[in-house]
């Protein structure tokens, strides 16, 4: 019988015990009673079950005449033909109780355990030592529609007397004693008969059987009009949860995954023989034992020792708990290669898959077809008044008949037991004195010869008294009775009776609320070892008592003791409860301090998870796959993320195998994918096995999808490789790969992933100058063009690109495993939104002409390593291109490429999706208090119209220059998109001092401080010449160029092409000068003396240059003229570390706006003359004079260098500059000497005097030496000069 349970918080320990021990009431009815009750789709017993609890409080007087209240009094009403379930049937009913629980969601309360426990109580048989399950009373029920109800009552009484005469037989029912209460019920159908006639019959019954032994029950007050019930009923169907599921013809048709629990009678230890009753409501026939054994053996597919064998992820665990009834039909016909095949067994039994009865809630197990349709409600002819009458029947029976009867029986048993006990003790004492004691030294096993007692023996009388007091809630009297009987049973070595008495004595002490007596939990331990037949009930009740006293660890041990290899379902249920006990139990943490404060209690979380794993394993073996997945999921919550990597792998692999065996291939893929995690501790061989099985299962999934759906399907998400999405870099304007370009020709570098200065401020400055020059002005909030996006850039706006532009993504691929992984056919997964709608290449066979996807053939990811790969796509239409992930084929590493062609390779096609997260925001208070992240749109690229695209080629672009060397480079420019016209081509350079173009320069307004030079290129020109000049500072220098172009048909849009190359500058010459104003004869013209020093800085052992020769010296100034007739410059070649010193004189001339080339000292034997009025020399000098003085001294030099091929030499030409301002000239102006202050530089002076004077001091004591002081005003203004003479007499 199924009793109602508290599905919210679960019943308490007291309620569990009271549910296990209820007064048993038999029902003996005439066939016409079933006709009346059948209108409500019920039997009479089923009609009473929802109302079997006494709704009011009853009272009795105990043996001492003390008033005692009876609360929570509940009846166990059974048909008199009821028989205990056989072993096979009991296992089936227990499995259904677990399978058909209202909910199997993860919850601290387990309603399936309550259902299993209640089913366990109902499956226990009646025994001689447990009178609490014997019938205390019998309800004799006759319908008022019977032709002669009184005669029928007499026949029922005679039948009951005959049954009671055989009380105690193996197959028959058992009564508490021969004085069993008989209660007569006359049931009346309000729609078919007259109520007055029924009342007359009731009066006749009272005259015959007494007023307290009869009752009239009127039902069916509402005519039957279908299956709908009256709206006033307390529930739509209060009987549904109490109705057992009955066997039908489909019981023999079962699925391959059976819930048969054990091969022997280890689950319930119940009789193996089925006793059929005479009532039509009894259970039908069952399958024979050989069939059940065969199916049980087929389920032994999971080995408990395979702890580290293959298992699913949390998503797979969740998928197992879903309703699978839709997929079960296909699953029955399509079995995996690793699944246990049950077709031969079914064929041998003559069964087909079409006749299988499958449980809709789980799809597993041996399911009995219900005898009623659950969509049709019970009690369709009953009203609320009828329900009140049914409850009134139960109340009247209990208060007026049953409780008084039990009170009388308890008093009689107490008196009889007391009288016989004294006599029994006297005889026993004398026997012991004369013959000795037979008391054993310890408990014996149940194999000892059983002791048989007379039904009226004093020991059984005491046991009856205890059971009766226990049922009435008089636990004090019950304990004393059990305790007294226990001693007698122990003395007689009646160990089964002894164990039962100890169990009931311990329960009686526990139920005595407020009593100070210590609960004898050791009684349960003795009972468990003494009566294994009833060990399950004893362990369950003992655990409930221990849990109620917060002894959860001991309760768990009691439950674990009942687990065995031959009882999978029982072991699973008890192991799960033991795990929950460990979760609620706690221990004190280790503390070295002697603090009196109580430390926090720590739950035994690891024991909980371990036993939940064991429970999940046993659930799986018993066919309860949904409960197995739930148990594994609970355990995974403990192990996951806490370093229990191997335990996680066991969980994933176990559930993965369950998914695969149940044809849940997609869930199995998710489960096995969790094994390929980054922090896996498995060996390389085990990871190889995981990877191979993962690929194999995915192949099964693809084949399954191809069979179901003939069209293309999307790619599955794979766990390998690991991609950190935030580290992805996007380059929206990638240079197209070009062919047939080889040295000495090189292409403009543009932006690459290896460019460290891609976001340098110099590029923004150059772009701003180009935009201002091309469009006349720039926006106040000018934003430079960004081509490379990463996690360090501002990604709140969509990247911009144009049609036919190559987009590149740099992906960091990580292989966390200890084995190499091969990826083939790697390509990007995208979604394009344009004028034609949304298009995607996510499907396997999707070929889209609007976006070209480039495929990387293969890459091998080494064990525990990371690789950066670059993948490309090219949009060909305007719209929004979103990069969603990367697709590839995952293959074993040791597969030959030729094997893939012939289809001999095992591979799986899948994808890894990207997930970006912008930087965390912290601007507002709301953002600081919460976790708010900025949007990251770097993978959503806006594609604009086609734009011209320039290709720039450099011919003989050097990688090495000498300081001051001037090298010409030919630059070729072309438009690689001829369909789009190009216009407004401008070149920008940020180093005009060392770079010049043979193009008209666009002058800026700020001529002196402008560091960016702009040149306009005529689109009709195909090539120009560019000159490079080696910098004065040796080392690595950067050549930065930016090419600007636009489409004349599209305004405010332009394209940029960058070039950045590194040039190493080596030392050549150093140039210094010592400048001084000197007097120049009679005309007093201002004259400068320039001492020139040229030094070869090459190392002595350097052979790269044969020597450096000064070929030309020029003074370029708008104020000074060089006097060539008074210049002295030695001739010759400067070898390494040699210096040249020359003297030049310059006189002041008429100042001009433009500088003029004064007299040039030409050295014909060394090179050719340089015309400084021509480019690029004019450009270099002008740029030099923008940042340095107005007078420039130029030294031109030549050198020879051996060619790279070793044959011939190359002529190298270079120039060095030295400049000064006229106001900065001092007496010494060598570069190593600091100049004087500006005030001292305004006036120059010289003195004229005799250095040797002859004077006779005898004649004249004072010697006068004439000194002439010459002052020269070097400025253009009047200067007042004050001087004083200082004499040095030393």
UniProtKB/TrEMBL annotation:
Q: What is the superkingdom listed in this entry's lineage?
A: Eukaryota
Q: Which residues form the TPPC8 C-terminal Ig-like domain?
A: 1242-1284
Q: Where is the TPPC8 first Ig-like domain?
A: 755-959
Task: Report the residue ranges that make up the TPPC8 third Ig-like domain in this protein.
Answer: 1062-1216
InterPro entries (alphabetical): Ig_TPPC8_1st, Ig_TPPC8_3rd, Ig_TPPC8_C, TRAPP_III_complex_Trs85
**Where is it found, in Gene Ontology cellular component terms?**
TRAPPIII protein complex
Q: What is this protein called?
A: Trafficking protein particle complex subunit 8
């Amino acid at each position: 019988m199924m009793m109602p349970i508290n599905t919210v918080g679960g019943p308490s320990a007291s309620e569990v015990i009271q549910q296990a021990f209820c007064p048993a009431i038999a029902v003996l009815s005439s066939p016409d009673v079933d006709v009346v009750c059948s209108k409500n789709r019920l039997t009479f017993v089923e009609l009473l079950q929802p109302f079997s609890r006494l709704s009011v409080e009853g009272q009795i007087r105990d043996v001492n005449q003390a008033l005692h209240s009876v609360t929570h009094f509940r009846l166990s009403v059974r048909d008199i033909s009821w028989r205990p379930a056989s072993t096979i049937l009991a296992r089936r009913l227990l499995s259904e109780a677990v399978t058909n629980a209202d909910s199997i969601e993860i919850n601290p309360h387990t309603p399936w355990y309550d259902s299993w426990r209640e089913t366990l109580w109902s499956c226990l048989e009646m025994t001689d030592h447990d009178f609490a399950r014997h019938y205390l009373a019998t309800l004799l029920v006759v319908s008022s529609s019977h032709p002669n109800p009184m005669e029928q009552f007499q026949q029922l009484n005679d039948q009951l007397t005959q049954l009671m005469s055989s009380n105690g037989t193996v197959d028959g029912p058992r009564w508490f004693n021969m004085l069993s209460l008989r209660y007569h019920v006359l049931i009346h159908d309000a729609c078919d008969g007259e109520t007055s006639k029924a009342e007359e019959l009731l009066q006749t019954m009272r005259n015959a059987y007494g007023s307290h032994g009869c009752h009239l029950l009127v039902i069916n007050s509402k005519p039957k009009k279908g299956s709908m019930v009256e709206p006033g009923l307390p529930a739509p169907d209060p009987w549904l949860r109490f109705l057992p599921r009955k066997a039908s013809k489909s019981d023999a048709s079962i699925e391959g995954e059976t819930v048969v629990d054990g091969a022997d009678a280890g689950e319930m230890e119940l009789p193996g023989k089925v006793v059929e009753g005479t009532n039509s409501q009894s259970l039908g026939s069952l399958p024979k034992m050989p069939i059940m054994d065969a199916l049980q053996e087929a389920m032994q597919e999971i080995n408990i020792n395979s702890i580290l064998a293959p298992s699913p992820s949390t998503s797979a665990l969740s998928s197992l708990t879903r309703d699978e009834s839709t997929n079960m039909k296909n699953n029955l016909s399509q079995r995996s290669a690793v699944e246990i095949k049950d077709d031969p067994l079914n064929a041998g039994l003559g069964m087909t898959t079409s006749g299988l009865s499958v449980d809709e809630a789980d799809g597993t197990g041996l399911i009995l077809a219900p005898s009623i349709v659950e969509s049709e409600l019970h009690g369709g002819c009953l009203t609320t008044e009828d329900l009140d009458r049914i409850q009134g029947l139960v109340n009247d029976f209990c208060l007026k008949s049953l409780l008084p009867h039990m009170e009388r029986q308890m008093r009689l048993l107490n008196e009889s037991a007391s009288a016989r006990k004294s006599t029994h003790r006297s005889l026993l004492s004398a026997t012991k004195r004369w013959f000795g004691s037979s008391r054993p030294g310890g408990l014996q096993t149940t194999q000892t010869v059983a002791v048989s007692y007379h039904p009226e023996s004093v020991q059984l009388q005491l046991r009856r008294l205890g059971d009766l007091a226990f049922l009435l809630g008089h636990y004090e009297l019950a304990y004393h009775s059990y305790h007294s009987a226990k001693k007698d049973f122990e003395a007689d070595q009646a160990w089964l009776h002894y164990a039962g008495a100890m169990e009931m004595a311990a329960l009686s002490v526990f139920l005595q609320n407020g009593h100070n007596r210590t609960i004898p939990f050791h009684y349960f331990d003795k009972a468990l070892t003494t009566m294994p037949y009833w060990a399950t009930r004893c362990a369950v009740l003992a655990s409930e008592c221990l849990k109620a006293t917060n002894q959860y660890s001991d309760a768990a041990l009691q439950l674990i003791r009942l687990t065995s290899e031959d009882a999978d379902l029982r072991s699973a249920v008890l192991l799960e409860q033991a795990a929950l006990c460990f979760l609620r139990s706690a221990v004190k943490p280790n503390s070295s301090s002697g603090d009196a404060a109580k430390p926090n209690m720590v739950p035994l979380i690891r024991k909980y998870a371990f036993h939940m794993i064991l429970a999940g394993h046993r659930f799986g073996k018993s066919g309860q796959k949904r409960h197995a997945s739930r148990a594994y999921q609970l355990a995974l919550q403990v192990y996951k993320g806490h370093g229990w990597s191997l335990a996680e792998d066991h969980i994933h692999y176990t559930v993965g195998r369950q998914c695969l065996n149940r044809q849940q291939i997609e869930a199995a893929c998710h489960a096995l994918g969790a094994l390929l995690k980054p922090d896996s501790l498995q060996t390389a061989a085990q990871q190889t096995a995981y990877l191979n099985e993962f690929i194999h299962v995915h192949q099964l999934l693809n084949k399954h999808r191809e069979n179901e759906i003939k069209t293309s399907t999307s790619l599955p998400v794979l766990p390998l490789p690991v991609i950190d999405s935030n580290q992805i870099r996007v380059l929206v304007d990638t240079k197209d790969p070009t062919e047939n370009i080889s040295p000495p020709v090189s292409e403009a570098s543009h932006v690459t992933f290896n460019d460290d200065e891609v976001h340098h401020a110099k590029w923004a400055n150059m772009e701003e100058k180009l935009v201002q020059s091309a469009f006349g002005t720039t926006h106040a909030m000018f934003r430079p063009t960004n081509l490379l996006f990463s996690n360090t850039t501002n990604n709140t706006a969509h990247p911009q690109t144009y049609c036919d532009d190559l987009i590149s993504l740099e992906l960091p691929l990580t292989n966390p495993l200890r084995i190499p992984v091969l990826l083939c056919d790697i390509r990007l997964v995208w979604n394009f939104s344009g004028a034609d709608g949304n298009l995607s290449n996510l499907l396997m066979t999707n070929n889209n002409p609007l976006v070209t996807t480039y495929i990387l053939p293969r890459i091998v990811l080494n064990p525990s390593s990371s690789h950066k790969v670059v993948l490309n796509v090219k949009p060909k239409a305007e719209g929004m291109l979103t990069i969603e992930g990367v697709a590839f084929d995952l293959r074993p590493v040791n597969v030959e490429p030729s094997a893939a062609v012939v289809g001999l390779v095992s591979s799986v096609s899948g994808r890894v999706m990207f997930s970006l997260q912008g930087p965390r925001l912290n601007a507002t208070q709301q953002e600081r208090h919460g976790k708010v992240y900025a949007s990251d749109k770097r993978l959503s690229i806006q594609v604009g119209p086609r734009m011209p695209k320039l290709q720039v080629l450099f011919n003989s672009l050097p990688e090495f220059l000498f300081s001051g060397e001037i090298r010409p480079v030919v630059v070729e420019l072309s438009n690689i998109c001829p369909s789009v016209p190009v216009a407004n081509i401008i070149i920008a350079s940020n180093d005009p001092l060392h770079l010049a173009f043979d193009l008209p320069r666009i002058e800026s307004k700020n001529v002196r401080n402008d560091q960016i030079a702009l040149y306009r290129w005529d689109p009709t020109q195909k090539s120009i010449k560019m000159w490079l000049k080696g910098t004065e500072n040796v080392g690595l220098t950067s050549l930065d160029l930016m090419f600007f172009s636009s489409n004349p048909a599209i305004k405010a849009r332009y394209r940029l092409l960058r070039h950045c190359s590194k040039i190493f500058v080596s030392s050549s010459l150093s140039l210094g000068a010592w400048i001084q104003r000197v007097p120049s004869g009679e005309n007093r013209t201002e004259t400068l003396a320039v001492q020139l020093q040229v030094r070869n800085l090459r190392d002595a052992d350097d052979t790269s240059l044969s020597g450096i020769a000064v070929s030309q010296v020029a003074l370029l100034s708008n104020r000074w003229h060089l006097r060539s007739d008074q210049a002295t410059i030695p001739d010759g070649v400067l070898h390494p570390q040699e210096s040249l010193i020359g003297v030049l004189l310059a006189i002041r001339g008429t100042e001009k706006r433009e500088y003029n080339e004064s007299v040039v000292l030409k050295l014909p034997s060394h090179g050719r003359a340089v015309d400084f009025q021509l480019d690029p020399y004019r450009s270099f000098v002008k740029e030099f004079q923008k940042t340095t003085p107005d007078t420039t001294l130029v030294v031109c030099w030549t050198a020879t260098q051996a060619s790279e091929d070793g044959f011939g030499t190359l002529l190298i030409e270079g120039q060095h500059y030295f400049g000064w301002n006229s106001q900065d000239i001092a007496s010494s102006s060598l570069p190593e000497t600091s100049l004087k202050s500006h005030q001292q530089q305004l006036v120059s002076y010289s003195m004229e005097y005799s250095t040797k004077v002859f004077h006779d001091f005898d004649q004249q004591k004072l010697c006068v030496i004439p000194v002439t002081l010459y002052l020269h005003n070097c400025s253009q203004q009047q200067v007042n000069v004050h001087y004083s003479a200082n004499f040095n007499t030393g």
